[in-house]
Amino acid sequence: MQASSDKSSFTTTFSVDQSPEQVFDAINNVRGWWSGEIEGPTHGLGAEFTYRYKTMHRSTQRITEWVPGKKVAWHIVTADLSFVADKTEWNGTEIVFEIERRGDKTEVRFTHVGLVPTFECYGDCSGAWGYYVQDSLVPLITTGRGAPNGPDGESDDEDAQATDDEPRAG
Question: Does residue 47 lie within any of the structural domains?
Fold first, then answer.
């Protein structure tokens, strides 16, 4: 995995053996790799879902780009980050996953467009994205098991692996 912030917005890239379609499906199984409470559909253009992690983070994402096997983008409609002075830093930012076949590998470029080093949350948020992308999304793609609640987990495995077609336990 490569991470960089020199182009302003937080970006990280990784490659896997799986097909672009398998990668796309795993990315959109948001509950399988991102912790917290997720309500609403995470599939399809125009779908909107909310994410909440305790009292620290609440945001609403709208899917603004949906190109199976190639790209998905979420527009942050609203956000409330309780751990920074400007609780709305994420408002209007975009989370983009670009998928491309390169030889026998599939490359994924994750960019949180607008998450820039001048944001108070940049250090914490880029570190969290690094974890969720490398240590949870990549294993979900490669093994079918993400780690949204950390390596030891805070919820049962079935809950962490729920798909959009399965209700989340709890």
Answer: yes
- 163 contacts 28 by C-beta, under 8 angstroms: no
Nearest 10 degrees: CA dihedral of 165, 42, 148, 138? 100
Task: Report the alpha-carbon angle 37-39-44, nearest 5.
Answer: 130
Q: Quick: pLDDT tens for 124-158.
A: 999 999 999 999 999 999 999 999 987 655 543 33
Question: In the beta sheet, which residues pair with residue 113?
Answer: 94
Is the pTM higher than 0.70?
yes
Specify if 100 maps to a domain: yes
Residue 160 confidence (pLDDT) above 60: no
**Could you tell me the two tokens for 106?**
């599939």
> Domain residues for 112?
2-160
Tell the residue number behind the tokens 């945001």, with chain if given.
59
